[in-house]
Specification:
Order of helices and strands: HHEEHHEHEEEEEHEHEEHHHEEEH
Shape: globular
Largest sheet: 12 strands, mixed
Distance between the termini: 57 Å
Number of helices: 11
Structural class: alpha+beta
Number of strands: 14
Helix content: 25-40%
Number of domains: 3
Radius of gyration: 24 Å
């Protein structure tokens, strides 16, 4: 792909895929580093007059398009490439990794099978329909591989509009896990209803082949049950409940902001009305019956989908076990996405609990 086509693809990606708060973050960083003027109060005089001034452009998409297409120094596109490494992603899956060796990285770079990310280089990401030749970045014990897929807008028959769809693979050598992170994409870019599962399968297969490693799934259903029994800093609610061969959807609302399901609301009702339920022996019996009813449903039913909340951290995630008949669990991160630290925290927390459960089972 020529550099001109690459820039056009980036422009269409930012316009059609990125939420506005992502676009604002990119503009903020470009302005902070003195590459653009995005403040009408700044007067472009003297040396500063040579800096691109986009303060007079009102539309945020037009600002970014102007910057990318008029960047004679070919620097600004690197900020988007770097942002793709640092931003938070909406979805993720986690695997355990065995036999990963750092030594293989340099060989893959030398063989041109992967590209080494360098901010001061004119090299740009390789994009293809198969996500070949990922871009590499190493930070301490973590290896980041950014797979760049070229997706076509299928609704525009007469126009070839493509976007760059990133899938970020992170190998954390300290805790021996592979995490695949990716974002939602519009239906007009998907080719099948199993789009995400297909992408995950493809990326995991490529990583296993490239790095000569073995990845195994983690039983997060067991981990979630362990957390529910042992931890008090996380609230867990059933979203779907499989009982007697039938799936019951327990969300009180389809709105992601309203994430407390019906069983959770019933428990909360009992807790907040203790004075009523404890007023006499009959009401106490009713309370005990309700508690046993809730416990019985949760104990005797499979929970294919749950939501977890860390109240003190302000973090909310959803987990779908056996996603699209795969053996792994599919993670959904709710609310506005900030930086990657929140997702890093969730991953570390879950893996620590997985290790605790594993040690507990082995000791027994």
């Amino acid at each position: 792909m020529s550099f001109e086509r690459y820039i056009n693809c980036l422009v269409d990606t930012v316009k059609n895929v990125y939420p506005n708060y992502f676009k604002k973050n990119i503009l903020k960083q470009l302005s902070k580093d003195g590459l653009i003027i995005n403040d009408k109060r700044v007067s472009p005089k003297g040396q500063i007059s040579f800096i691109m001034n986009v303060s007079y452009i009102d539309d945020i998409d037009s600002k970014i398009e102007y910057i990318l297409k008029n960047d004679d120094k070919k620097i600004c596109y690197k900020y988007i490439e770097e942002f793709e490494f640092n931003k938070a992603y909406r979805h993720s899956v986690i695997f355990e990794v065995k036999e990963f060796k750092f030594d293989i990285i340099q060989d893959l770079v030398d063989e041109n099978k992967i590209l080494m990310y360098k901010k001061d280089s004119t090299m740009y990401d390789f994009i293809s329909t198969e996500g070949d030749r990922p871009t590499l970045r190493v930070e301490g014990n973590k290896v980041y591989l950014k797979f760049n897929f070229l997706l076509k807008n299928r609704e525009l028959e007469d126009i070839n509009q493509y976007v760059k769809y990133n899938v970020l693979a992170i190998i954390d050598n300290e805790i021996n896990v592979l995490e695949i992170r990716f974002d939602r994409i519009g239906l007009n870019y998907k080719t099948r209803h199993t789009f995400y599962a297909d992408i995950i399968d493809k990326v995991v297969s490529k990583i296993n082949d490239l790095l000569n490693i073995t990845t195994t799934t983690i039983d997060f259903k067991a981990v979630v049950n362990y957390i529910k029994e042992e931890k008090d800093d996380v609230s867990i609610y059933a979203v779907e409940l499989l009982r007697n061969g039938t799936i019951a959807y327990l969300d009180a609302s389809s709105n992601e902001e309203m994430i407390i399901p019906i069983l959770g609301e019933l428990e909360q009702l009992i807790d907040t009305n203790q004075n009523i339920f404890n007023s006499n022996n009959e009401t106490k019996k009713i309370k005990d019956m309700l508690k046993q009813f809730i416990e019985g449903i949760e104990t005797n039913s499979d929970l294919p989908s749950v939501k977890m909340i860390w109240p003190e951290k302000g973090i909310k995630i959803g987990i779908k076990h056996n996603y699209k008949d795969r053996e792994y669990s599919f993670f959904m991160h709710y609310d506005e996405l900030g930086d990657k630290e929140r997702i890093d925290y969730v991953t570390r927390y879950l893996i620590e609990c997985y290790r605790e459960l594993k040690n507990k089972i082995q000791s027994n």
